[in-house]
Amino acid sequence: MQPAGPWTPEQAAVLERAAASGDVKVVAFAGTGKTTTLEGIAREALPRRRILYLAFNRTVAEEARHRFPAWVTARTPHALAYAAVGYRYRSRLVTTPLALRRALEERLPHSLRVLQGFGRRRAAAAFAVLETLEAFCRSDAALPGPAHVPAWLVGALPEAEQAGFAAAAAQAARSAWRALTDPAATLPVTHDVYLKLWQLSRPRLPFDAILFDEAQDADPVVRALLLDQPVPRVVVGDPYQQLYAWRGAVNALQAFPGPELALTRSWRFGPAVAATANRILDILGERRRLVGGGPATATVLDRPDLGLETAVLTRSNAGAVAAALERLDKGRKVAVAGGVAHLVRLVEAAYAFSRGEPARHPDLLAFNDWQELEMMAETELGSGFRPVVQLVHDYGRQLPEVTRRLATATVPPSAAEVTIATVHRAKGGEWDHVRLWDDFPPFARTAGDGTVRIDRAEAHLWYVAVTRARRRLNLAGLGPRLEDSLRRARQAVYNG
What is a GO molecular function of this protein (predicted)? Predict the structure, then answer.
């Protein structure tokens, strides 16, 4: 956390620009005091103005509500949309678009038969429509179109059939959209549906300025909503902590107008951690340097488990389960970021489902059998099921005992000696002693033709992981993997 004291020159420049009532976008690297800067804008640059602080996470918005001055309204985009539109659909709300699957099969049998004509099973046809609808709801388009049909679905067909399939899927999605948005209908509605409806109504928000936090994760529907507002916008984010490219949040900061300023001094960690982060940023094309202004004694190690970590960060949920079990075996008090209750219920139901028992979890009701679930887990829409499928495959008959231990042996974070977190859950967090689990894959690989391919999404995850540490970062054997990726990536950049 940034200590009390005068603003840095970088922060002062941001406040000065905001006070001039103009748009500004701020690249705020890890730990550089972005929330403190936004609070300063509200108190000093825009005092007594009607300000909207917008964040994606409800917990973050709630914290801002207590931290920011009274003239700031802190909300999530979905909270604003629900108050304006979503409440009309409250009796039909569901948390997953998969709940629509049965309704689509009943309401759009002809459209699904057309898609089945391309060699798709009925379930796969319904999933194609659902994925197209989801992509549309995240977009700034007025209606679903062929561009919203997932490329992986279209690309799996012979080239001669691709345009016809995309057109048929888009037409089915348009029919589904009309049915979904009929106030008199009974079809299930997701939260993204009413957010999209609200954006299409082009609302004017009753504020004098907007502060948009974590803007790197903005998808086109939220960007369109904000770009429609005739007031100054301060958008803040770290493009290298952008972990949701599949939602359309690619280079989201660049879509906003205004000059670009940067916050580069991190108060979280010292020079050693900053140097590791800068090496990753360098191969991503970033030329600004992250400055470690935190504890000068902070270190980066690459040693076996020292038993000193206060957090273990994993790439996957399966890795989080394995890390938690290992520490429980050593008698340590373990917390799992985000809790385990939801994961335990879903994994237990998925295990039973894999053994031929009926689906008894709401998220599984859309599937006729385990094979359909496995198929869906390979799609973007079903990517949330991949960890569950992986856990069932990895642990098999041991899974009931694994989930029992997780449910009964883990403790709340306040009572824990060590917290286990996936990188996605760890984003925004920080711990004194961080150890990385061994499930982080390389982010640069050499293909069969000799070309090096950089997986930017994986590089972002590495960057987020290493920048969670305040005093000690332990790569715990991943050092050679990181060095190999950096070497290959530098070769690709040099040759490119």
Answer: 3'-5' DNA helicase activity
